Amino acid sequence: MTRHTARNRLAAGALLATGALTLTACGSGFNDTPGEGQASGSGKLTLLIGSSGDAETTAVTDAVAAWSEQSGVEAEVQTANDLPQQLSQGFAAGSPPDLFYLAPEALAGYAANGSIAAYGDDLANKDDFYPSLIDNFTVDGTFFCAPKDFSTLALIINTDLWTAAGLTDADIPTTWDQLASVAQRLTADGRVGLAFGAEYQRVGAFMAQAGGGLVTDGAATADSPENLEALNYVKTHLNDGSFAFASDVGAGWGGEALGTQKAAMVIEGNWISGAMSADYPNVNYTVAELPAGPGGKGTLQFTNCWGMAADSGNQEQARSLVEYLTSTDQQLAFSEAFGPMPSIESAADAWSAANPDATAFLAGAEYAQFPPNMAGAADVITDFNAQLESLKTGDPAALLKTAQSNLEAITG
Predict the structure, then answer these.
(1) Which of 75, 116, 177, 192 is exposed most, by the fewest CB atoms within 10 A?
(2) pLDDT of residue 271
(3) Which CATH superfamily is domain 3-151+302-365 in?
(4) Nearest to 154 by CA among 270, 24, 275
């Protein structure tokens, strides 16, 4: 997942539900005329990506070109304006790309109708992927596709405001009580201490820290006592004014709230680094792991995989290209070019050395939850997000009861 991909989908209110689905791109969609190398068996590979911008498009295009020169197999990268829609259109027309960015919440539907190939177990580098990422792209025990990269959530702190409030590194919160305390101290001069999106893709981190989650071992657990404790904690501090939803401070997402200094701290993913350097280069910040809650440490992870069309006539070549694109060296090159964290453990040390100020994001991989990925989960999360917008004045128990009912309808 790229930083802006995640930003758009999360800030829009449904990273997983919609955000991750509303990937933006520079360029036009793919040609859905059969015979142009898409599911044609012509030997030419086509790739459809949802790009965060020129840096990502160039990096992927250059990597694919290098593989083509090495392998002798022609390949073309196409960028989508609306990836989910254009991918769906390609399948409907019988001419999908050979490879494409695929969000976890879209996997189950495509797997159920036989549209995508399950090639994960055939990858030479299968054992190098983080286990939680393999789980993210596993449906009914089958590992379908290679995670291309990933991100987690962390606590982003404006260091100038932190120092001005008389806080030091020793005050970086590691518990909910400490988070509430420093947020209160940082709430001043019309600025809120902590801001985050009014959506499960942010609030869900508190649920994880309480020991909860929307789905546990395939069963709906939205109305658990742990989740209720998490929402009550968030509601309490929304009402005392030390926490706020980004939209309530006039920001489109957490990065904007931090960059405009409408919030002293935000909860965001590692995609924030590119936005801060590009849009708010004079704002100094540090990154820390999210504080632990009653259930321990918790965060959420977000990712996409390299989906492969079941009807592709180039599956062997496509798998070879995926192995190249997810190799250690290539993932580190992608990270340097446009910011994502490598999805493979062998790149961890090199990535940490190159990004010493962002290691809190990688640390979260050890305990991160991923949003539900079964068919229908995107719609459930969209509804949940709409209700979370009124958490400050609403009834957390009633909100969770509705989410539970909706999840039970899709989990059985």
Answers:
(1) 177
(2) 85
(3) Periplasmic binding protein-like II (3.40.190.10)
(4) 270
266: which 2 tokens?
A: 């935000």
Domains 3-151+302-365 and 153-300+373-411 share a fold: yes
pLDDT confidence bin for 167, thresholds 50/70/90: very high
DSSP class of residue 147 equals E
**Confidence label for 326 from pLDDT (cuts 50, 70 and 90):** very high
Report the SS3 class of residue 172. Answer: coil
The closest alpha carbon to 133, from 379, 404, 365, 310, belongs to 365
Cβ-Cβ contacts under 8 Å for 225 (sequence gap 6 or more): 212
pTM for the full predicted model: 0.83
Q: Which residues of 382-395 are buried (b: 16+ CB within 10 A; e: fewer)?
A: bebbebbeebbeee
Indicate the domain borders of the chain: 3-151+302-365, 153-300+373-411
- How many CB atoms sit inside 10 A of residue 42's CB? 14
- Cβ(200)–Cβ(381) below 8 Å: yes
Long-range residue pairs from 326-330, CB within 8 A, at least 24 positions apart, any chain: 326/123, 326/125, 326/129, 326/146, 326/147, 326/148, 327/125, 328/128, 330/63
Is the separation of the CB atoms in 332 and 342 below 8 Å?
Answer: yes
Distance CA 20, CA 98 (A): 21
Return the C-alpha torsion angle 7, 229, 287, 244, nearest 10: 60
Task: Return d(Cα 140, Cα 129) in angstroms, integer.
Answer: 19
CATH architecture of 153-300+373-411: 3-Layer(aba) Sandwich (3.40)
Q: How far apart are CA 174 and CA 395, in angstroms?
A: 28
